[in-house]
Fold:
Amino acid sequence: MHNSTKYTVDIAIWITLGAVLLYVAGWSYAYH
Structure:
């Protein structure tokens, strides 16, 4: 159960990082 929780948290972190990177990349592309 503990490993499952950690796995879920890791995925959430990666999804958040990916979303931020896509947002920054899109913003830079639109306004550069």
About this structure: The chain has one domain: 1-32. The chain has one helix and no strands.
